[in-house]
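SAMPLE LOG
Freezer: B-3
Tube label: C17
Construct: single chain, 383 aa
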Amino acid sequence: MKFEDVKKITMIGAGAMGNGIATCGLMAGYTVALRDVEQRFVDNGVAGVKSSLAKFKEKGKITPEAHDAALARLIPIVDLKEAVKDADFIIEAVPEKLEIKQSVMAELDKYSPKHAILASNTSNISITEIAKATSRPDKVIGYHFFNPAVLMKLVEITKGAKTSDEAVQIGYELAKKMKKVPVIVHKDSPGFIFNRVNEPSTLLLSLILQDGHPTPEEFDAAMKPLMPMAPFELMDYVGIDIAYHSLDYFAKVLSPEYKPSAAMDALLKAGTLGKKTGKGIYDWSAGRPTIDLSKATKEYDINHLIALQVNEATKVLDEGVAESVAEIDLAMANGGGSPFGPFALAQSIGYNILLERLENLYKKFKLEVFKPTELMKKGDIKV
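STRUCTURE (predicted):
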């Protein structure tokens, strides 16, 4: 199959991510079947698509005619067999558990045309493992959109051990047609590029919580002037449970050093998960917490976080997960809120400054995750 042969996309899972991706497909001119296990979930997904398209129309991003044509190409559906029987490209966005992903993929493999590409929107799980549930591992790819999918540009396209170059190329071209920024993850690795590069920072937050100093507010106060949402504030906003399970996953598949701290474990067991429960690290009951900038710690600054990113990015480069500095910077800039990737930042700040911050963290916590790599020590990586 060639990219030009893709006419119909089927989206499995109509939640926030699923209906967001479906909207991207509709705006790119495709017929999109939006499928979920119950009609009420499908209805909620359709409402999400309609809301997104209406906003684009109001802002003049799409014409009224394009808006109506996109909705006319949307097929809300519960019947899985019917949803995939004539699909060319199928994307699943079901819960982030390997057993669920494999079960869904086995069904997709059974009922969809033999030429169809099976794409997983997983943010962490091995594509190679997911593909084992099918008879077509050459046609299984990782297809990681970022939330909200209608606005965020990055799509990580991951090759499993048996994924064909053709399948990756079709996914790449499709993402471009959706006006996204596709980046190929050449080696199936935990967290792919974006989440892998950011995970050491999450580990640092977990360790600071355990230490008890600085306090989360003191740490955030030092970072807040340089970012829209400070690190602990963002962890609370996304959910303590999400950060915990991410660390736990990395501890199992990458390094046991990522094991969540007892302090994070306590928050999880207490059910104080952040914004979603009204309280976590901060109190959200009255809305977004206020961070007192006068409390800013002198122990940490933004360069500690950048140093962790750059160091992990050198591992991603060295392991062949990404093939170039440019790919990593492209992924990091388009997956988050920064206009620059870690290597571009390192070049402007100076590797000597970042290396000093990293060595301080390694000396303090004695973790291999924080140990400067040889590439980091050389500091002559050209952007």
